[in-house]
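Lab meeting notes turned into a lecture example. A postdoc, R.K., suggested we walk through two folding results consecutively so the class can see how the record format repeats. The first protein's sequence and C-alpha cells come next.
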Amino acid sequence: MGKGGMSTEGHGEGKDGETDNMAAWLVGLNSLKILPFKLPPLGPHDVRVRMKAVGICGSDVHYLKTLRCADFVVKEPMVIGHECAGIIEEVGIEVKHLLPGDRVAIEPGISCWRCDPCKEGRYNLCPDMKFFATPPVHGSLANQIVHPADLCFKLPDNVSLEEGAMCEPLSVGVHACRRADIGPEKNVLIMGAGPIGLVTLLAARAFGAPRIVIVDVDEHRLSVAKTLGADEIFKVSTNIQDVAEEVLKIHKAMGAGVDVTFDCAGFNKTMSTALSATRSGGKVCLVGMGHSEMTLPLAPTAAREVDVIGIFRYKNTWPLCLEFLKSGKIDVKPLITHRFGFSQKEVEEAFETSARGGNAIKVMFNL
C-alpha cells in the first residue's frame, strides 16, 4: 500500500501486529464496517495524521447506495471519506514546515506532477489522480492516515478542525468562483441550495459578488441560504415546462442582469434555466453532476454568446479557504448540522442521516 491509500492488500493490522488503526470500510451495497486499516510506511516527504474531523460528502453516500459514482466503480472493500482535518503525529525526515502537534486541513488528491495538465498547473485534471475514497484509493474516515506533507495545511489558531475539514467542499465553491471570474461587478444566480450550492454562495460573497439569488426545490435549504446571506431566494419546481415563467421571476428577483449562473445541481431543468436566465455575454458554470447527459437549448445560448464552463474538483484553493476562514469573510460553521462519533452504530446513523437529507446539510464525524 502506498501514499494516498492505494492498496492491493485490503485491511490489515497495525504496528507489531496490533490493530491500532481502524477505518470505516465500504464492504458492500449499503454496508459499512469499522475494520483494521494498515498504514503504509512513512516516506521522507509524508506525515502521519490522526484524524479529528471528517465530513460526509454526497459522493460518499452515492458510493454507499450504488457502489459507483460516474465512471468510478467500487470493486473491492474501500475506506470511505475525503473531507478531513487532523493533528500531525509524525513527520518524514524531509518535512520542514510541519511538526507533531500541528493541526492541519488535508487536500485529498495526489496528482502525478508529470503529465501535461500537472505541468500546466491544472493538476486537478491529472488523469492519474489518486483521490481519497475514489476507487481504488482508500479514504480518510480512519483513526490515522499517511499523506504527502505538501497537501497538509496548517490551521490558523482561530480556525477549528471542523472548519478545516470544511475546506474541501468550500474549495469547490472557491474554484468555481475563480473559473467564472467572480468579482464586485458580477451578479450571481445559484441553482441549488444543497451543500455545494451553499458553499458557492459563501465563496461568491467573499469574492465580492454584489447580489446573489439562489433557487431550489426545498424550502428549508432556501431558508438556510437566506440566513447565510443570499439577497433573494425562491422555490422552483422540477417541471421543465416551468422554465420560462421561473426565468422571469429570477430576473425580477435579481433586479438586474444575471452575469454568472452556477448550476450546483446539474439536471436538465436546472441547466436549461441557467442558460436562459443568464444575460447575453454572461457565463454559466456547471458545478453539479446530477445528469451525465442533457438536452439543452444550446443554439439560442450560442446566439447570445453565453459561455459555458465546467469545473472538476479544485486546485490551489486551501490557502485562500483558510484565509477566508481566518479573516471571518466566510463562516462555514452554520453548515455543520449533525455530529457523530466513530463507532459502528454512529457511522451507520451518520450516513443514514446524510442520505435522508431533510434538515441535514453537513454531517461531521468527530474522531
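The second example is placed directly after the first for contrast:
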Amino acid sequence: MAFLFGRRPRTNTVDLPKQARDQLSKFDNSSGASKAEELAKTLGQMKFVLQGTHETESSPEQVYQLVTGMIQEDLLYLLAVNLHRLPFESRKDAQVIFSYVLRFRPPTASPKSEPIALSYVINNRPEVFVELCNGYDHKESATPAGTVLREVLKSDAAAAIILYDDPTEGGPSAKGLTGIQPDARQSGRGVFWKFFNWIDQGSFEVGADAFTTFRSIKLLGEILLDRANYAVMTAYVDRGEHLKICMNLLRDERKMVQYEGFHVFKVFVANPHKSIAVQKILLINRDRLLNFLKHFLEDRTEDEQFIDEREFLIKQIKNMPPHASRADSKASTFGVTTTLRTETGSLAVIAGITGHEHGVLGIGI
C-alpha cells in the first residue's frame, strides 16, 4: 500500500534504456502513437531515476546503471536524432535526461574528471553532438537541443568537435578528436556552417535559439582565430561595429567573459593597420579606455602575460596620433601577430572572439 503515501515503486533501471531504444525503433510504423505513449512513460521513469523527487533522493548506483545502459544502447544518439518527433512533454524530459547524464560522475570519480557519458561521446560517438546541432532543423527540437548544446559547449573537446566537423563523402558523419585537422581547409559541409542558415532562414524559435548558442565565446573564437580562416579574421578586425561588441564584453559582469573579450580587444588595438572606423572609436574613447584598463581585472596579479598585454595596450592607445589616418586603413592580421610578438614577446597566440550587444564606455559611433 505504499502508493497510498505517495511513494513510487522501485524502477528496474537496467531495463529502461533497452525499453526506450525498442520504443524509438518502432516509432515509424502504424503503432507510432501507442509507442509514443509508452516512450513518454519510459522517459518519465528515467527522469525520476536521475532527479529523484521531494520525497525520494536519486540513488548514485541506479544513476550509474542508467547512464552506462544508455551508452550501451546508444540511446543518446537515438534521442538526439528523434528529438523533434517526440511529444512536447517527452522533449522536455529528454532535455533533462541529456543534461543529467552528460554531467554525471560516479561518486568515486575525481571532481576534475570528465563525466563518463560526455567522455564516451567525445571519444566514441561524436555524432551525438552533430545531431543535437541538427535539432535546429526543426522548430520543435530547437529549444531542448540548444539548451543541451550550451552545456556541452563548456567542454573544449566538444566545442572542437563541432567547430571542425567536416564530413567527407562516403565517410563518417562526424569525427572524434583524433580525426580533427585544425589546419585543413574546411569544405563548408560541417555542422558549424549550418548555424548561419539556422539564424537567418529558420523560424523565430530556431533563429533565436541558434544565435544564442552561436555566440558562445569559445565556439566563435575558435573559428575566427583558426589559420584557415585568415580572410575572416582580417575582415573582422577591420569593422568598427565589431570593436564596439568587443569593448562591451570588457564590461560584462562575468570575469571570464571580460577576460576572453580582452583577447579580442587586443587584436584591434595592436593592429598596425587599423581602419578609420576602428581608429575613431579608440580615439573618442581614449581617456575612458586608459582609465578603465588601468584597473581592468586587477585580481589577476599572478598572470604575468596578461599584465604585460594590458600594459602594452595602454601604451598603444596612449601613443595613438590625435586624428584618424587613412594610412592605417588596410587591416593585416599578419601585421597584428608580428607586432604582438615583437613588442611583448608573448602575444603570438590570441584567443577568444565573441559577439554581444552594443553600447559600452560611452561609444557614440
